[in-house]
Amino acid sequence: MNLLLYGAPGSGKGTQADMLRSRFGIPHIATGDMLRAEITAGSELGRKVQPILAVGGYVPDPIMIGIVQNRLQQPDCARGFIIDGFPRTVPQAEALDELMRKLGRRFDRVLYLKVETEELLRRLSGRLVCPACQRTYPPGKQKCPVDSTSLVQREDDKREAVKPRIEIYLEKTIPVLDYYGREGLVSEIDGRGTIEEISQKVMAALPLSPPLKGRSAGPAERSRPGAGVKQPPAARKE
Ligand code: ADP
C-alpha cells in the first residue's frame, strides 16, 4: 500500500498516519519529523533548515527531494509506505512521480484530511509536544503520560509561525492536491469528529483491492524518520 497523506498543520494527519502504519505494517515517512530529527542531532542539514522551520517556511525543493529519494529506497519501504508532508509543492510532486516510475511503483490513494482554518488555529494554539516520543497534547498537561518527559511547545507552533504555516500550506500544497486530483487519486476526508470516526472514514477511502503493482502487506515495521534517531510510535501527531 503506497499512500500519500495530506492535511494542514493541526488537521490530525499524524494520528491517522500512525493508525495506518500499524494496520498495514508499513513505515510512516513524515518529512517534518525527519527535519526535526536533523535539528536535534545538530547535523549540517539540521543547522541549515532550523531557521526555516522556526518561521513556518518551506525547505527548498532540492533538499526535500534528496531526503525523500534516499528514504524511499531504504529496504523497509519495499512493501509500501505512508508519506506525510511530501510532496508539498508541484516540483516536489513531479520529482516524486519520476522516482515512483523508476521504482516501478504507483500510489494507491492520496488522502486529504480537511479541517477549516479556524479549527486548525484553535487546535494548534497551546498544543504541546513530547520531545521524546513526538506525541502531541492539548494544553493542560506538563509531562508526557507515556514516558514522563516534560512537554514543550514545538518551535513552529508558536503564534508567529502558525499562521504562515497554514497560509503557505493553502498557497503551495493545495495545488499539489489538484495535481493528484487530475489522476483521480484524491479522497477528501472530513477531519471533524473523534479520532475513531475519522479513522473509519480513512479506511473506507482505501481501495479494497490495491493494484498488484506496488501492492504490499507484511509485518509491522517502525518508521525511520532520521539517521540514527530513534522514533517511538506516535499516538497523536499532527
Ligand atoms: P505541519 O504540522 O506544519 O504539517 P510538519 O511536521 O509536516 O508540520 O513539517 C514541519 C515543517 O517542516 C514545515 O513547516 C516545513 O518548514 C518543513 N517541511 C516538512 N516537509 C516539507 C516539504 N516537503 N517541503 C518543504 N518543507 C517541508
Walkthrough of the structure:
With 238 residues, the protein is α/β, with parallel strands linked by helices. Helices cover 43% and strands 12% of the residues. It contains eight helices and seven strands, in the order βαβαααβαβαββαβα. The strands form two sheets. Strands 2-3-1-4-7 form a five-stranded parallel beta sheet. Helix 1 crosses helix 8, helix 2 crosses helix 3 and helix 4 runs parallel beside helix 5. It is globular and about 45 Å long. About 11% of the residues have low confidence. Adenosine-5'-diphosphate binds next to helix 2 and helix 3. Adenosine-5'-diphosphate (ADP) binds next to helix 2 and helix 3.
Number of helices: 8
Global Rg: 17 Å
Strand order of the largest sheet: 2-3-1-4-7
Which percent bin holds the helix content?
40-55%
For the biggest sheet, the summary is:
5 strands, parallel
What is the string of helix and strand elements? EHEHHHEHEHEEHEH
How much is the average pLDDT? Answer: 86
Q: In percent, how much strand structure appears in the residues?
A: 5-15%
What's the total number of strands?
Answer: 7
Separation of termini?
Answer: 21 Å
What small ligands are held by the chains?
A: adenosine-5'-diphosphate
What does the secondary structure layout of this molecule look like, with pairings?
Elements: E1 2-7, H1 13-24, E2 28-30, H2 31-41, H3 44-54, H4 61-72, E3 81-84, H5 90-103, E4 109-114, H6 117-124, E5 128-129, E6 136-137, H7 159-181, E7 186-190, H8 195-205
Parallel strand pairs: 1-3, 1-4, 2-3, 4-7
Antiparallel strand pairs: 5-6
Helix pairs in contact: 1-8, 2-3, 4-5
The protein binds adenosine-5'-diphosphate.
